Amino acid sequence: DLLSSPKIRAWESSGNGNWKAEVELESAGSTITNMTLKYSPFENRIVVVTRGIDANLDAYVCDGNCTVASNWTREDNIAAVNTAATGQFDIDFETSTGDAILVYNILNTTSTGDLAYKILPAGSTTWSGPLYIDDTSAVSDALFEWPLLARDPISTSQELVLIAHDTTNSDTHA
Question: Which of 18, 72, 115, 164 has its CA 20 to 30 A from that of 83?
Fold first, then answer.
């Protein structure tokens, strides 16, 4: 299905540069509405996370020769996002460890979790269970959108910065 399979093209910068052949990855199982791709600063790893029309996130991981579809692994439905918000997720890598962190908004009815995150350890293709971020300055069950992650570029750093917009209170939090 053209709308449910991510397609990747790599840039080859030698000479005048050119785009390599398109690689079509395994179907996400539903029409893709959003996706993001990040390279690890630590190792030869690419992670793609897609959001489908079913509100589920799927993750694709490649640890080398990523212009070959069979070198990608897919983990299906790693999380579900709240479709009432726009910009539901982001991913980045810790600089020193190469661990990938996925942060996403959630449909939550408790006051102890406003955003969730998962960790993909370097060298692994299996994500951790969900961990939760509770913004204690927000009302219970705040709806966050546009979470954005940025890593500290210092080679020994395991720090990431997170900023997200709280639609419930019209605030932006970092």
Answer: 72
In which residue are the tokens 């540069």 written?
Answer: 17
CA-closest candidate to residue 79, choices 109, 108, 57, 96: 57
DSSP strands (E only) in the chain: 7-8, 11-12, 18-19, 23-24, 32-39, 46-52, 56-62, 72-80, 89-93, 100-105, 115-120, 131-133, 144-151, 160-166, 171-173
Q: How far apart are CA 172 and CA 164, in angstroms?
A: 6
Nearest-CA neighbor of 55 among 76, 82, 73, 29?
82
- Give the CA radius of gyration of the chain: 17
Rounded distance between C-alpha atoms, residue 101 and residue 87, angstroms? 16
| CB-CB contact of 38 with 93 (8 Å) | yes
Q: How many CB atoms within 10 Å of residue 125?
A: 17
pLDDT tens, position by position, for the chain (174 residues)?
568 999 999 888 888 999 999 999 999 999 999 999 999 988 889 999 999 999 999 999 999 899 999 999 999 999 988 887 778 999 999 988 999 999 998 876 666 778 889 999 998 999 999 998 877 776 667 777 788 898 888 888 888 888 788 777 777 777
pTM score, two decimals? Answer: 0.88
